[in-house]
Amino acid sequence: MMRKLWSSFLRLFRESDRALLPADSRQVRPLTIVVAIMCALGCLAGLSASAGFRAADTWTSDLKSAMSVVVQSPRGDADLTRAAAIVGRVAGVTRSEAMSRDRAKELLRNYGTDMSTTIDALPVPRLIEVGVVAGQTNVKADIERVLKAAGFTVTVDDHSRFTGEVLRTSTLVRIVAILALVALVVAAIATIAFAARAALETRREAVNILHLVGAKDAFVAREVQIRFLRLGFVAGLIGAGVAGVLALIGTLVFAFGASDFTSGAPLLAWTDVWILLIAPMITGSASAIAANMAARATLRDLV
């Protein structure tokens, strides 16, 4: 039973020498290249969207698990150390570290091209870097409460503004990726439908002979459908392979020149293999459906 099913599957993807509507290699090769390119672009769009989602999740998680406490008064080093110790005892806080003046100045230098001695005259903010348990919602209020009770005037930044920006950017990436995929699928279906119609037009005499010997439109449409199922599947395999190689090269390039924004979110992950695996199936199925519909419509016009 399994051998018979396997043989039937192989027949779908092997051109028969006795095909009733033999394919024209002058049409098949260019069409295969076009569909393969569309499939590769679709896979790259899917892989890019997946990488963008991972990056957004990483950045959002980092932002949600950290807070910054700006100590406005008192501002002495001893006071800052005492405030950090108080914050460290708050429930949900995993880390509390007072930022030194030198480190604060170094951070400010990253936003200026040549501040030289000017930075020494600036009122450097006294900061406490705080790590929190993910999902804690009342830590900010607790930090403000305990520091106020200890006589400090502070401002606690939970990075929610930046988290919102990341989420909005992630949503935009998702919408663009979905629109790109839809556009590519529509273009591929239109191309296959046009090719199926052209194939039947060039085989008008063969179609008429088949009708004369009693062949139904459904039979002829099925012959066309099987041919384009085979073409779409092969083109999908080629496109998915090319997309996988390009994504792998891109991952290696990012690995060599990784920054703080890219090192935590690889361009290609093992979980993305499913995109490359289902692409040929989707391409083959879409090609078969488009070819069948176009063939039926064309046959009604030819008869």
TrEMBL record:
Keyword entries, A-Z: Membrane, Transmembrane, Transmembrane helix
Signal peptide residues on this chain, from the entry's feature table: none
GO process annotations (BP): cell division
Transmembrane portions of the chain: 175-196, 231-254, 274-295
Domain of life: Bacteria
A single cellular component GO annotation: cell division site
InterPro entries for the chain: FtsX (IPR004513)
Protein name: Cell division protein FtsX
